[in-house]
């Protein structure tokens, strides 16, 4: 499969000097064209920091301290997003990569009509586009996300939470980006509405061909809507595999723990075992594998040596990677 975004050895820290904490550590991850890549992990594992880091939307004191984010445009040569000038970066965001933030539905401007907010995005990126074309595009976008274009002149407070969220998704898609990052896009909505909106997004992805990085606490949604899933712990990717493989046969004890914290989607009921202990403190990260103090399977190398993310020695090893001493690897990823 063709890559659209390649994250290589990405490191992000909050703060400077002695006080700095490393929130994203040596992350290597590839998003392929047209796929939905789910990011899972407990609160504080670095999912949002990774998403904002790769679009350079980190707020201070967040700083990218190393790595590359190679973007493959539809036409032309790949380039490193981290090396873009401010002007090029403004063009890149929205047009190439768009983000739907946590709680996005509350970020619509309450004093402007939906139509104005949608057409403003078009105006900012293509000042030459006629008003007629802008309005037509905004109506089309609303229709695509399941809102009647009659609602173009509504103000945000006149729409339900689900509709506001659809408007935000429409806004993210209006410039036809190749990559859409969804950070907890539907968390504030009820379960039925969440599934409906995500289902529709997946349908749109099939029609429009964009790729998605999908972040949510809800593992059942991730398994249902992602093609592949990457699991983060203490700022690192500890496992990455096709969603069905993670669900059926996760290799990392942390992934297994996460999966046992939510009810089985199908088949016999499983005990909700969860994971004992709490996520690591970034300021005082354990040595070796950062999961070892909580790991039921920890053994001799774990407290002292960091396992590298690599292809496991298994029949499906080429399609997955794991960072765990139970599955030592000769082929590091990245
Ligand atoms: N502005 C900040 N200043 C200092 N540390 C921060 C800041 N923002 C995040 N962090 C730290 O970085 C780590 C990663 O946070 P991040 O929000 O990326 O995790 P997450 O996995 O997305 O969590 P959640 O699911 O709760 O959003 C956390 O330990 C957090 O405390």
TrEMBL record:
<keyword id="KW-0813">Transport</keyword>
<protein>
    <submittedName>
        <fullName>Oligopeptide/dipeptide ABC transporter ATP-binding protein</fullName>
    </submittedName>
</protein>
<dbReference type="InterPro" id="IPR027417">
    <property type="entry name" value="P-loop_NTPase"/>
</dbReference>
<dbReference type="InterPro" id="IPR017871">
    <property type="entry name" value="ABC_transporter-like_CS"/>
</dbReference>
<dbReference type="GO" id="GO:0005524">
    <property type="term" value="F:ATP binding"/>
</dbReference>
<dbReference type="Pfam" id="PF08352">
    <property type="entry name" value="oligo_HPY"/>
</dbReference>
<dbReference type="GO" id="GO:0015833">
    <property type="term" value="P:peptide transport"/>
</dbReference>
<dbReference type="GO" id="GO:0016887">
    <property type="term" value="F:ATP hydrolysis activity"/>
</dbReference>
<dbReference type="InterPro" id="IPR003593">
    <property type="entry name" value="AAA+_ATPase"/>
</dbReference>
<comment type="similarity">
    <text>Belongs to the ABC transporter superfamily.</text>
</comment>
<keyword id="KW-0067">ATP-binding</keyword>
<feature type="domain" description="ABC transporter">
    <location>
        <begin position="7"/>
        <end position="259"/>
    </location>
</feature>
<dbReference type="InterPro" id="IPR013563">
    <property type="entry name" value="Oligopep_ABC_C"/>
</dbReference>
<dbReference type="InterPro" id="IPR003439">
    <property type="entry name" value="ABC_transporter-like_ATP-bd"/>
</dbReference>
<keyword id="KW-0547">Nucleotide-binding</keyword>
<dbReference type="Pfam" id="PF00005">
    <property type="entry name" value="ABC_tran"/>
</dbReference>
């Amino acid at each position: 499969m063709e890559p659209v975004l390649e994250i290589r050895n990405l490191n992000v820290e909050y703060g400077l000097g002695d006080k700095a904490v490393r929130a994203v550590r040596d992350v290597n991850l590839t998003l392929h064209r047209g796929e939905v890549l789910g990011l899972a992990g407990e609160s504080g594992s670095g999912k949002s920091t990774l998403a904002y880091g790769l679009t350079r939307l980190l707020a201070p004191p967040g700083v990218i301290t190393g790595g590359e984010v190679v973007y493959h445009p539809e036409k032309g040569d790949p380039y490193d997003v981290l090396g873009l000038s401010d002007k090029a970066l403004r063009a890149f965001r929205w047009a190439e990569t768009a983000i739907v933030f946590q709680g996005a539905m509350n970020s619509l401007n309450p004093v402007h009509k939906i139509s104005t907010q949608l057409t403003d995005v078009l105006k900012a990126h293509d000042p030459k586009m006629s008003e007629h074309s802008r309005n037509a595009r905004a109506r089309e976008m609303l229709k695509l996300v399941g809102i009647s274009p009659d609602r173009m002149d509504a103000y945000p407070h006149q729409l339900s939470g689900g509709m506001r969220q659809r408007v935000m998704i429409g806004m993210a898609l209006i410039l036809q980006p190749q990559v859409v990052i969804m950070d907890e896009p539907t968390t504030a909505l009820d379960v039925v509405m969440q599934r409906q909106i995500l289902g529709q997004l997946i349908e749109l992805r099939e029609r429009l061909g964009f790729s998605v990085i999908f972040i949510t606490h809800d593992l059942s949604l991730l398994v249902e809507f992602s093609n592949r899933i990457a699991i983060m712990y203490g700022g690192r990717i500890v496992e990455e595999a096709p969603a069905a493989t993670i669900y059926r046969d996760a290799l990392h004890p942390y992934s297994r723990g996460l999966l046992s914290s939510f009810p089985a989607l199908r088949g016999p009921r499983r005990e909700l075992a969860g994971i004992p202990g709490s996520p690591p403190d970034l300021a005082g990260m354990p040595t070796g594998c950062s999961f070892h103090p909580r790991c039921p399977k920890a053994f001799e190398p774990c407290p002292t040596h960091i396992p590298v993310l690599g292809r496991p020695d298994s029949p499906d090893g080429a399609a997955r990677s794991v960072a765990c001493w139970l599955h030592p690897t000769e082929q590091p990823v990245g």
